[in-house]
Amino acid sequence: MFVRTERLTLRRFTPADAERFAAYRSDPDVARYQGWDAPVPLTEAAESVERFGQADPEAPGWFQYAVDLDGVLIGDLGVNLHKNLMQADLGFTFAAEYQGKGYASEAVRGLLEYLFVERELHRVSAEADARNTASARLLERVGFTREGLRLSNTWMKGEWTDDLLFGYLRDDYLNRSRPRPAPST
């Protein structure tokens, strides 16, 4: 099970990914808006990549795709498939040295193509910490529509944070020349 883009391969995690996974997820800048605390111990990373590698991407729940650039793990994409098997939530994490080079946009676009065209999902949703403007811009750049803002919604790392809500419908993906207007706020 692979998703290939021009430069990247989205694949299953393997035990060999543990050290690299621990390294980029231990970066405080990478972890800042995420639900884990840095550093990520190698033993914890090894357990995570083993669990990720054994997961079923077609079963409800989270599945993590390893993002591979020429044999190097540069990040991961998470897809939380809903029980109805028609919608999912999306998340992404990339090593700092690979941010700002178009890899995340390319990986997310490739995964959306797979989810909407091959799997025929109806909807993919995403949330971002409102302070994480880079993630919000990425989501909008690849076609997501900002659907809302939940004020002081998530308690994370000792503070309440605002959540930006994004959505992308299969019909909108297939008819990309006619994007939906953003809701007025």
Automatic annotation (TrEMBL):
One Pfam family matching this protein: Acetyltransf_3
Single annotated GO MF: acyltransferase activity, transferring groups other than amino-acyl groups
SUPFAM superfamilies named among the record's database cross-references: Acyl-CoA N-acyltransferases (Nat)
Signal peptide: none
InterPro entries the UniProt entry points to: Acyl_CoA_acyltransferase (IPR016181), GNAT_dom (IPR000182), N-acetyltransferase (IPR051531)
Domain spans labelled N-acetyltransferase: 8-171
Listed PROSITE patterns: GNAT
Source domain of life: Bacteria
Protein name: Aminoglycoside 6'-N-acetyltransferase
